[in-house]
Amino acid sequence: MQLGFFFDQTRCSGCEACVLACKQWHSEDEDAVDYITVIEQEKGSYPDVQVKWLFLPCFHCADPPCIKVCPAEAIAKRAEDGLVTVDRGKCLGKLECGALCQKACPYGAPRFREQPSAKMEKCDGCPDRLEQGKDPICVASCPLFALAFGPTTERETRSGVTREVDGFRYRNGVGPSITFKPKR
After folding, report:
1. Residue 64: which of 55, 74, 73, 77 has the closest Cα?
2. What residues pair up with 8 in beta bridges, in sequence order?
3. pTM for this model (two decimals)
4. 121-142: pLDDT as tens digits
5. Per the structure, how many domains does the chain have?
6. Residue 33 CB partners (closer than 8 Å, separation 6+)
């Protein structure tokens, strides 16, 4: 089974509650990095302007390129749910390996703090919450219910659901585990 995200662009207001909740859940440090990026997209010109947002966490890809390039084998894909995890104890740090995982990821999921010896961090799908039967913290914090998380096969066949939206290209060889309800 592969778990993944569903993002409903028609519901997202760009409030970034998901970003803040994730950051607070995973770290109390002032220099903590965001594991999620929310990008504002504007289209058109006055008076016909459209604004929508794009949610960009780690997509827990089917064939993650970050795993292939990690010289310390610090990145792994869990067999039971497809989550891509990082063993920060094994990670050599961005200075030592040159942040190969970050360079290999087409979606920019691996993140590093400012320190030269910083270890890679990224969205992990909140396995601790999943084990308790809860949603990842980003999903639970979304006030407009724009996010969902679960088996990817449950959403791929729904009407109006797609794998690509403006600003995001699905890559077959990588297989990001996300589906979208696009805002037209």
Report:
1. 77
2. 181
3. 0.91
4. 999 999 999 999 999 999 999 9
5. 1
6. 23, 111, 112, 113, 121
Q: Give yes or no for a contact between 127 and 115, defined as CB atoms under 8 angstroms apart.
A: no
d(CA 160, CA 167): 18
Q: Enumerate residues 6+ apart whose C-beta is below 8 A from 125.
A: 3, 58, 60, 81, 83, 136, 149
- Estimate to the nearest angstrom the gap between the alpha carbon of 48 and the chain centroid: 31
114: its two tokens: 């400012």
Residue 57 CA from chain centroid, whole number: 2
Tens-digit pLDDT profile for residues 74-112: 999 999 999 999 999 999 998 889 999 999 999 999 999
- What is the span of the domain harbouring residue 82? 3-181
CATH code (residue 47): 3.30.70.20
- Burial (CB count <10 Å: 0-12, 13-18, 19+), residue 46: exposed
The confidence band for 166, taking pLDDT boundaries of 50, 70 and 90, is very high
